[in-house]
Amino acid sequence: MKRRDFLKNMTFDATGLAALIIMVISGCSGPKEPEIFIDIDKKLQYSAATVRQSLAGLSVEEGFPRRVNQGEYRWSNTRYTGWTSGFFPGLLWNLYTFTGDDELKQAAIAYTNALEPITRMDWNTHDLGFMMYLSAGKAYEHTQDAIYRQWLMETADSLADLFNPVVGTIHSWPWGERRHGWPHNTIIDNMLNLEFLFWAANNGGGEHLRDIAITHTHTTLRNGFRNDFSTWHVIVYEKDSPNVIKKITDQGYSDESVWSRGQAWAMHGFSMAYRETGIAEFLDVAVAASEFFIDHLPDDFVPYWDFMLPDTAGQPRDASAAAIAASALVELSTLVDDQEVSSHFLETAQQMIRSLFENYRSEETMAILGHSTGSKPHDSEIDVPLVYADYYFIEALMRMRNGELRMKN
Ligand code: GLY
Predict the structure, then answer these.
(1) CA-atom Rg of the chain in angstroms
(2) Residue 386 neighbours by CB under 8 Å, 6+ apart
(3) Which residues form the pocket of ligand 1, taking CB atoms under 6 Å from any ligand atom?
(4) Is the pLDDT at 196 greater than 70, yes or no?
(5) What is 3-408's CATH number, 1.50.10.10, 3.40.50.2000, 1.10.1200.10, 3.40.50.360?
C-alpha cells in the first residue's frame, strides 16, 4: 500500500485520530518524526495474560507449542527437533523481560532446558538459529549461565558446517539432495539464522562465523531477488560451482509468485544483516523488499499467504508474515536515515500490529493470534494459530517498547 493510500485506509481509534492530526500538522512543518500511536503495553499485557493462562494447561514434557488445529483450544506440540521449537521459549523470555514475572522466567528456563538434546545431535538443517538462538541465546542474555554459551557455540558451529564456500551459502535443506536431487539449496528463510552466527562471532566463536554470515548475505542478495525486490523462496545451486540451477518455490503459489512469509523473512534478515555489518547494500535491499511488501498489502495490512494469487477470494491470510514484517519494519525505521521513510515504516508496522490485534486475535485458543498459514501447497497448517506469529508479534512490540526507535536528527 502506497503512502497516500495509507492515509486513506487508516481505521481510527481515539489514539489513531490524534496521531493523524499530529501527522498532518507535522507534515506541514517539515520532515515528520516517527510517532507511536498504538498502545504497546496493552498488547503486551494481553499477550502475557494469554501465555500465562496457556501455561496452566501445558507441560514441557509434552513438547513445544507449534500450532492450534482448527476447532481446538490447546496448542499442538512439536518435538525439540522441529524447526519451531525455539519460538515458545523465546516468547516466554521476551514476556519475562516485559513483566518481570518469575512464573514466566521459570517456564522460559524449563522450555529452554528441554532443548538441550539439540546440542548432542548431528544437525542437518539451517533452522538451528530459530531453535537455539531465540531460546538459549535469550537464556544466556538473562542468566549469563555458561552452559547456555557452550550450547550456543556448539550449535553455531553445526550451523556453520553447512556452509559451502564454493557456492557462498549455507545448505538450508540438505535433505533436498536425496528427496529432490538438488545438489545444494538455500531458502530465503535462512537469512534469519545468520543472526546466530553474528552473535557467536561477537562472543568469541571466531571471525569465520561472521565471514560466513556476510558471504551468505551477499550471495543471497545477488541471486535471491527479482528486479522488483520480491524474493524467490528456494535457490537450487550446483554443489561444486556457484552456478544457479533453478529458482523455485516450496511454500509459495508458484515459482514466479511471491510467498508472503518469504518476503517478510527477507525484510527481517537483511535489516539484521545491515545492523550487524553496516554494509549499505544490505540496507538498500531491506528497504526495497519492504516497499514491495507494503505496496502489495491488502487494505487491512495482513497479507494473503502469497502476494501473486490470481484470485484472493476464499484464500487464507498469513498473520505470521504480517508479524515478521512488522518487527522488521520497526527495526528498519531505526536504521534508515531518511525521516520520511523511517516514519512510513514505523507507521505501517503499527497499522499491521493494530490490525493483527483487532482483527486476527485468537481469543478462543491458547494462542495470541490466529489466521496464519504454514504451507498452503502442502495443505498444512492453514488459517490456524502458529507459534512464530505470536513470537514475532511480541518481538515487534518489544522492539518498539525497548527504544530501538532512535529518532533521527
Ligand atoms: N522457515 C519455515 C517457514 O517459514 O515456514
Answers:
(1) 20
(2) 66, 67, 84, 319, 320, 367, 372, 374
(3) 83, 189, 251, 261, 374
(4) yes
(5) 1.50.10.10
Of 173, 265, 378, best ligand 1 pocket probe by most atoms within 8 Å of the beta carbon: 265
Q: How many residues does the chain have?
A: 409
Distance CA 81, CA 146 (A): 23
18 pLDDT band (50/70/90 cuts)?
A: very low
Residue among 189, 250, 318, 390 flagged as catalytic? 189
Residue 203 has pLDDT above 80, yes or no: yes
Distance 270 CA to ligand 1 centre (A): 16
Which tens digit of pLDDT belongs to each residue from 284-327? 999 999 999 999 999 999 999 999 999 999 999 999 999 999 99
> What distance in Å separates the CA atoms of residue 247 and residue 185, rounded to the nearest whole number?
10
